[in-house]
Each structure stands twice: as structure tokens, then as C-alpha cells.
Amino acid sequence: QVQLVESGGGLVQAGGSLRLSCAASGAVFSINSMAWYRQPPGKQREFVAEIQSGVGTDYADSVKGRFTISRDNAKNTGYLQMNGLKLEDTAVYYCNAAGSSTGWRPFNSWGQGTQVTVSS
Fold first, then answer.
1. Of 37, 44, 102, 113, whose CB has the highest number of CB atoms within 10 Å?
2. What is the Cα–Cα distance from 82 to 101, expressed in whole angstroms?
3. Which residues have C-beta within 8 Å of that of residue 32, sequence separation ≥ 6?
């Protein structure tokens, strides 16, 4: 079992910044990709950003130039640096990770989500 725990959400004024973290624990052997999704109030979950080993990064058009995804492989932790936050960035942010657990079993795990609220 691989568990993901997000942290770093909170309330911030428009134009401000937040840094989300996603820590993977448990039977982690290797992580191939880490991604962030978000679910705005009353809407469906949507893709935000992804970082893949050997491939690079990808972003939703709505966050390009403002958000940066990164990873610390030694810590099995991913980050989402969010700058220039807008009201429409308000959402519950979820971390997703995929890779291999000990025993070479594939895993695809989700975190519990962290609330980001941007105020005017």
C-alpha cells in the first residue's frame, strides 16, 4: 500500500502564493509520475500538472506560467508551487502518484485532498 498525504493548502489573497506538498509513504519502490488535480466547488475534478520521470512536466493551460510542479525523489515528495493565485484557483487539490511498490507491483494512489481558497 502506498499512501499520499497533501499539505500546504489554506486561505490566500488573490495574487498570493502557496506551496503544496505531497508525501508518499508505505511500500514505495519507485515513482514514475506525480500529478496534481483539483476540484472547484460544484465542478468536476480537473488536471492541473504532472511530472514524469524521463519525460518532463505538463500543465493545464489555465495554470501555465503561474504554477510549477517539482519532485524530490529522495524524499518521495512532490510539490506544486502556485504563484499569482486567482479566485478561480479555489478548489480542493488532490495529489496522484503512480509507480512501483515493493515487490514490483504497480500502484496508483490518491491523496485525501487539501483545500485552497483564494479571496479577493
1. 37
2. 29
3. 52, 53, 98, 99, 100
User: In angstroms, rounded to a whole number, what is the distance separating the alpha carbons of residues 65 and 54?
Assistant: 22
What are the grid coordinates assigned to 90, written together? 479555489
Grid cell for residue 75: 524524499
Nearby residues of 19 by Cβ (< 8 Å), 6 or more positions away:
8, 79, 80, 81, 82
Question: Which tens digits make up the pLDDT trace of 67-96?
Answer: 999 999 999 999 999 999 999 999 999 999
What φ, ψ does residue 29 adopt, rounded to 5°? -105, -50
Residue keyed to cell 483564494: 118
* Amino acid at residue number 5: V
Whether residue 2 contacts residue 24, with contact meaning beta carbons closer than 8 Å, is answered with: yes
> In terms of residues, how long is the chain?
120
DSSP β-ladder status, 91-101 and 67-72: unpaired
Grid cell locating 54: 524521463
Task: Summarize pLDDT for 16-58 with one digit per residue, the tens.
Answer: 999 999 999 999 889 999 999 999 999 999 999 999 999 999 9
